[in-house]
Structure formats: structure tokens, C-alpha cells
Amino acid sequence: MRRLFYAGLIVVWPFACAGAQTSCPTARTTTARAADVDDRLEIALEDGGHLRLYGVEAPAPPAGADAAVKLRAWLTDRDLDIDYIGATQDRWGRNLARVFATLPDDDERAPVSLADHLIATGAARALVEPGPAACLAPLFTLEEEARLGHRGLWADPANAPLPSSQREAFAGHAGQKVIVEGRVTSVGETASRLYLNFGPMRTVDFSATIPRATLKQMTASGLDPRTLTGAFARIRGQLDLRFGPQIEIIYPSALEIPASAVNSPYNRPRARQ
User: Fold this and answer.
1) How many structural domains comprise the chain?
2) Reported pTM
3) In this prediction, what percent of the chain has a pLDDT beyond 90?
4) How far apart are CA 35 and CA 32, in angstroms?
5) Does residue 89 belong to any structural domain of this protein?
6) Is the same domain home to 110 and 189?
7) 142 φψ region: left (φ > 0), alpha (ψ -120 to 50), beta (else)
8) Any idea what the CATH number is for the domain that residue 35 is in?
9) Position 257 pLDDT exceeds 90
10) Are residues 81 and 164 in the same domain?
11) Cβ atoms of residues 266 and 183 within 8 Å
């Protein structure tokens, strides 16, 4: 059995419920030898293949370059176990995959997940991807543990999630990939999309928009976002400030109900005024 870094961690994940798809797709499994790692944490293989790690986003320079140096030292000339997510390459000639390797000082033990290791140590972020949200839930759990432990990139306060209740926190982040967290104060709906509002003023306070196609995927997986009023939620994506701070949720995994929210003051009933 491959050793997974997220063993024992629990995330309150709305999609990993009864009837939801919990297995992650694999097109084929093989073994290959690593030749190099670039600053995007993508892996070149000796056979000419090129891998992008599923669910992994490299941090911006110089942190990305530092992580690449360490990963390159670990993997170069090492055999990898590869689970390919799809059968085809993307436009840049990369294959999306989950990759496993033995640790440098632990060659006799089972291979570990590179994605788990990078995210658990704070060397990379968890990346929203298409597909079942449950596939990425363990990576989001690892990222939260790393963030709470101030490991790696999370030691820098500038990388912390933006609090939805602080309007000034969004300044300077237009067009950037961010994490926003806070309480959903209301839910709105039109013919084309659903709105998760995190404050009373639609063009001033943060909101997340869910197109109908994404909403259909969410409800099929066991979550109806219409029921989230009052819930603590975490949203990932590109911040748009043109009509007030907002993120469009393209993939269901961009909406997370974090484990830490169970005991969060955000989720406790408010005292009567």
C-alpha cells in the first residue's frame, strides 16, 4: 500500500457524502524514471514524457524555485509510480497524474504521494481541478494543516486566506488567485447562476457566483448550495473586482467547508440582540 500523508486527518467535505463519487479516475498506471523538475513543479521523464501533478499549484517565485530544487534532488534518476488521470496530453504536452516515489532516506518503505508531501510541508498549494471534489478533499485538508502550522509558504502572512468580512482585504488582489473564507450571509439566485453572498451589499461585499452547470454538478454530488446560509465556507479562485469582490466557481472543488469550521465561532449561533 502506498503511504499517504493525510492518514488520520478529517475534512468536513460536502461532496463526500452518501451517494457521492469518492473514487478518483485513473486512465492507466505505469512506472517511469524522473529526469528533471522545473519551477512549476512539473516533472520531465527520461522517456520524454512530461507530468503535471494533480491538485498541486507551485508557489510564486522565489518559493517555487526553492521547492523545485528540493524536489529535483529527491526525484532525479528515481523510479516513479504514475497514475495518469487522462489518456491525452494538454496543449503543452503534459499529462495530468498522481505520482508516487520513495523518500530519499526511506527507500525500503512504500512510495508516498508527491502531492501530499508538497502540500503537507507547505511547499505548494492545493489546486482546484475538474472532476469529483472528493478527489481533492484530502489535499485541502493537508493544506489547512500546513497553514495552521505555519509551514513553508504559510509562514508568510501575505499568503493567508482573505477574510470575507474585511472589505479592505481585497484591495490589490484583482486578477489574482486567492482563498477567501467567512460566513455565507445569504443566497441569491437568477436564471443563469446562484450567488453566495458574504455580506449585505452585493457590489461592496464579497460574493461567489455559481453557474448553472457547476450548480448541477454540486447537487448531483450531494450538496445544494442553496442551503449554505449561515455556513462557514472557503472559496478558491481568481478574484474579480469589477463589480465588487467576487469569484466565479467553475469547478465544485472551489467551494470548501473546512474541518476547522466545525468549532469555528463563525458556525456558532449568534446571541440574541
Assistant:
1) 2
2) 0.83
3) 71
4) 10
5) yes
6) no
7) alpha
8) 2.40.50.90
9) no
10) no
11) yes
